[in-house]
Amino acid sequence: MAQEHGQGRDSFAVMAGVGLLEAGGHRTNFQVEKWDLDQIAWAKRKDYDDLRLIGFGTSEPTPEDFRRLGCKPFETFLEEDCNLILDAGWQMMMNGVAGSAVTKFSNGAVGRIGGGDTATAAAYTQTDLAAATGSTHRQWELINAVPTVGSTHTAGLIVAAQFPTTDGNFAWAEFGFDSGTAAGTGASVAPMFSRGVSSPGTKTSAQTWNATITFTWS
Predict the structure, then answer these.
(1) I need a labelling partner for 183 at 20 to 30 A (CA). Which of 9, 67, 210, 212 fits?
(2) Sign of CA dihedral 57, 62, 66, 68
(3) What are the tens digits of pLDDT across the range 24-35?
(4) Model pTM?
Protein backbone atom coordinates (compact mmCIF):
# COMPACT_ATOMS: atom_id res chain seq x y z
CA MET A 1 0.00 0.00 0.00
CA ALA A 2 1.49 3.35 -1.04
CA GLN A 3 2.10 5.93 1.69
CA GLU A 4 2.12 9.70 1.23
CA HIS A 5 4.27 12.04 3.27
CA GLY A 6 4.02 15.84 3.48
CA GLN A 7 5.88 18.53 5.37
CA GLY A 8 5.19 22.22 5.89
CA ARG A 9 6.78 25.11 7.73
CA ASP A 10 5.48 28.51 8.73
CA SER A 11 7.72 31.38 9.68
CA PHE A 12 6.99 34.78 11.16
CA ALA A 13 9.46 37.61 11.55
CA VAL A 14 9.27 41.11 12.98
CA MET A 15 11.74 43.67 11.67
CA ALA A 16 12.22 47.15 13.03
CA GLY A 17 11.89 49.92 10.49
CA VAL A 18 14.83 52.31 10.39
CA GLY A 19 14.12 55.86 9.39
CA LEU A 20 16.23 57.97 7.09
CA LEU A 21 19.40 59.29 8.67
CA GLU A 22 20.32 62.94 8.47
CA ALA A 23 23.87 64.08 8.25
CA GLY A 24 25.30 67.53 8.14
CA GLY A 25 28.50 69.43 8.43
CA HIS A 26 30.14 72.76 7.85
CA ARG A 27 32.58 74.06 5.28
CA THR A 28 34.71 77.15 5.40
CA ASN A 29 36.32 79.07 2.56
CA PHE A 30 39.27 81.36 3.23
CA GLN A 31 39.85 84.17 0.75
CA VAL A 32 42.55 86.85 0.65
CA GLU A 33 42.37 89.79 -1.77
CA LYS A 34 45.64 91.65 -2.31
CA TRP A 35 46.37 95.21 -3.50
CA ASP A 36 49.85 96.73 -3.93
CA LEU A 37 51.33 100.20 -3.39
CA ASP A 38 50.66 101.33 -6.96
CA GLN A 39 46.99 100.48 -6.57
CA ILE A 40 46.83 102.20 -3.21
CA ALA A 41 48.41 105.36 -4.66
CA TRP A 42 46.10 105.26 -7.70
CA ALA A 43 43.02 104.92 -5.49
CA LYS A 44 44.10 107.90 -3.40
CA ARG A 45 44.68 110.05 -6.49
CA LYS A 46 41.36 108.98 -7.99
CA ASP A 47 39.52 109.73 -4.80
CA TYR A 48 41.17 113.15 -4.51
CA ASP A 49 40.40 114.09 -8.12
CA ASP A 50 36.75 113.07 -8.00
CA LEU A 51 34.90 115.30 -5.55
CA ARG A 52 31.90 113.03 -5.67
CA LEU A 53 33.79 110.38 -3.71
CA ILE A 54 34.29 110.29 0.03
CA GLY A 55 37.95 110.99 0.86
CA PHE A 56 39.99 108.69 3.08
CA GLY A 57 42.81 111.17 3.68
CA THR A 58 46.06 109.62 4.84
CA SER A 59 44.50 106.25 5.68
CA GLU A 60 44.62 103.34 3.27
CA PRO A 61 41.69 102.65 0.97
CA THR A 62 39.36 99.96 2.26
CA PRO A 63 38.24 96.98 0.17
CA GLU A 64 34.96 98.84 -0.32
CA ASP A 65 36.89 101.86 -1.65
CA PHE A 66 38.80 99.71 -4.12
CA ARG A 67 35.60 98.09 -5.35
CA ARG A 68 33.81 101.44 -5.62
CA LEU A 69 36.67 102.72 -7.76
CA GLY A 70 36.75 99.57 -9.89
CA CYS A 71 40.25 98.63 -8.76
CA LYS A 72 40.51 94.84 -8.71
CA PRO A 73 43.06 93.01 -6.54
CA PHE A 74 46.28 92.04 -8.31
CA GLU A 75 45.79 88.59 -6.79
CA THR A 76 42.95 86.74 -5.07
CA PHE A 77 43.77 83.64 -3.04
CA LEU A 78 41.00 81.14 -2.25
CA GLU A 79 41.17 77.88 -0.35
CA GLU A 80 38.07 75.79 0.31
CA ASP A 81 37.18 73.68 3.33
CA CYS A 82 40.28 74.57 5.32
CA ASN A 83 38.89 75.58 8.71
CA LEU A 84 37.75 73.96 11.96
CA ILE A 85 35.12 75.40 14.30
CA LEU A 86 36.69 74.92 17.71
CA ASP A 87 34.99 73.58 20.85
CA ALA A 88 34.66 77.15 22.14
CA GLY A 89 33.01 78.12 18.86
CA TRP A 90 30.47 75.30 19.03
CA GLN A 91 29.70 76.19 22.63
CA MET A 92 29.21 79.80 21.61
CA MET A 93 26.72 78.80 18.91
CA MET A 94 24.80 76.47 21.23
CA ASN A 95 24.61 79.16 23.91
CA GLY A 96 23.21 81.45 21.26
CA VAL A 97 20.26 79.05 20.94
CA ALA A 98 19.82 78.07 24.58
CA GLY A 99 21.97 78.59 27.63
CA SER A 100 24.26 81.39 28.70
CA ALA A 101 24.15 84.70 26.88
CA VAL A 102 26.92 85.36 24.36
CA THR A 103 28.51 88.55 23.06
CA LYS A 104 27.79 88.76 19.35
CA PHE A 105 30.36 89.64 16.71
CA SER A 106 29.92 93.16 15.35
CA ASN A 107 31.60 95.50 12.90
CA GLY A 108 34.63 97.27 14.37
CA ALA A 109 33.75 96.29 17.94
CA VAL A 110 33.88 92.55 18.59
CA GLY A 111 35.50 89.94 16.39
CA ARG A 112 38.96 89.66 14.85
CA ILE A 113 40.61 87.66 12.10
CA GLY A 114 44.16 86.67 12.82
CA GLY A 115 46.99 85.39 10.67
CA GLY A 116 50.01 83.44 11.88
CA ASP A 117 53.14 81.77 10.56
CA THR A 118 52.75 78.28 12.06
CA ALA A 119 51.00 75.39 10.27
CA THR A 120 50.23 73.12 13.23
CA ALA A 121 47.16 71.03 12.38
CA ALA A 122 43.86 72.38 13.65
CA ALA A 123 42.25 70.60 16.62
CA TYR A 124 38.93 71.15 18.39
CA THR A 125 40.54 71.90 21.76
CA GLN A 126 42.75 74.74 20.53
CA THR A 127 42.16 78.19 21.98
CA ASP A 128 44.70 80.27 20.05
CA LEU A 129 46.79 80.50 16.90
CA ALA A 130 49.85 78.25 16.93
CA ALA A 131 52.25 81.08 16.07
CA ALA A 132 54.30 82.83 18.72
CA THR A 133 53.08 86.22 19.86
CA GLY A 134 54.67 89.32 18.35
CA SER A 135 54.40 91.24 15.09
CA THR A 136 56.84 89.02 13.18
CA HIS A 137 54.70 85.92 13.79
CA ARG A 138 51.03 86.92 14.12
CA GLN A 139 48.55 89.74 13.64
CA TRP A 140 44.90 90.27 14.62
CA GLU A 141 42.65 92.80 12.88
CA LEU A 142 39.07 93.77 13.74
CA ILE A 143 36.42 92.72 11.25
CA ASN A 144 35.72 95.67 8.96
CA ALA A 145 32.10 95.07 8.01
CA VAL A 146 28.89 93.92 9.61
CA PRO A 147 28.97 90.09 9.64
CA THR A 148 26.70 88.65 6.94
CA VAL A 149 24.29 86.06 8.34
CA GLY A 150 22.50 83.73 5.93
CA SER A 151 18.78 82.95 6.15
CA THR A 152 18.76 79.38 4.76
CA HIS A 153 20.43 76.09 5.71
CA THR A 154 22.95 76.43 2.87
CA ALA A 155 23.85 80.02 3.70
CA GLY A 156 26.14 80.84 6.54
CA LEU A 157 28.28 83.50 8.14
CA ILE A 158 30.76 85.83 6.40
CA VAL A 159 33.36 87.95 8.20
CA ALA A 160 36.22 90.02 6.77
CA ALA A 161 39.16 92.08 8.03
CA GLN A 162 41.76 94.30 6.36
CA PHE A 163 45.49 93.96 7.06
CA PRO A 164 47.14 97.28 6.13
CA THR A 165 50.65 97.70 4.76
CA THR A 166 52.08 98.04 8.27
CA ASP A 167 50.64 94.80 9.72
CA GLY A 168 50.86 91.05 9.22
CA ASN A 169 54.10 91.09 7.24
CA PHE A 170 55.30 87.50 7.32
CA ALA A 171 54.65 84.19 5.55
CA TRP A 172 51.11 83.18 6.49
CA ALA A 173 50.38 79.55 7.35
CA GLU A 174 47.22 79.75 9.51
CA PHE A 175 44.24 81.94 10.32
CA GLY A 176 41.71 82.23 13.12
CA PHE A 177 38.61 84.08 14.25
CA ASP A 178 38.30 85.22 17.87
CA SER A 179 36.35 87.61 20.12
CA GLY A 180 38.92 90.38 20.48
CA THR A 181 37.99 94.05 20.52
CA ALA A 182 41.20 95.64 19.18
CA ALA A 183 43.92 94.87 16.66
CA GLY A 184 47.10 93.40 18.11
CA THR A 185 49.82 90.77 18.08
CA GLY A 186 49.09 89.05 21.38
CA ALA A 187 47.18 85.95 22.42
CA SER A 188 43.67 85.19 21.26
CA VAL A 189 40.72 86.63 23.16
CA ALA A 190 38.27 83.94 24.29
CA PRO A 191 36.14 82.52 22.95
CA MET A 192 38.10 81.72 19.82
CA PHE A 193 35.56 80.58 17.26
CA SER A 194 37.65 78.82 14.63
CA ARG A 195 41.13 78.10 13.30
CA GLY A 196 42.35 76.95 9.90
CA VAL A 197 45.62 76.01 8.22
CA SER A 198 46.19 77.82 4.92
CA SER A 199 49.10 79.48 3.10
CA PRO A 200 47.96 82.53 1.08
CA GLY A 201 51.55 83.74 0.64
CA THR A 202 53.99 86.17 2.21
CA LYS A 203 52.59 89.60 3.02
CA THR A 204 54.93 92.59 2.82
CA SER A 205 54.72 96.28 3.64
CA ALA A 206 54.05 96.89 -0.05
CA GLN A 207 50.65 95.22 0.12
CA THR A 208 47.29 95.53 1.85
CA TRP A 209 45.25 92.35 2.27
CA ASN A 210 41.55 91.75 2.87
CA ALA A 211 40.89 88.38 4.51
CA THR A 212 37.39 86.87 4.31
CA ILE A 213 36.14 83.76 6.11
CA THR A 214 32.90 82.22 4.82
CA PHE A 215 31.20 79.57 6.99
CA THR A 216 28.46 77.44 5.43
CA TRP A 217 26.39 74.53 6.73
CA SER A 218 24.62 71.72 4.86
Answers:
(1) 67
(2) negative
(3) 567 889 999 999
(4) 0.85
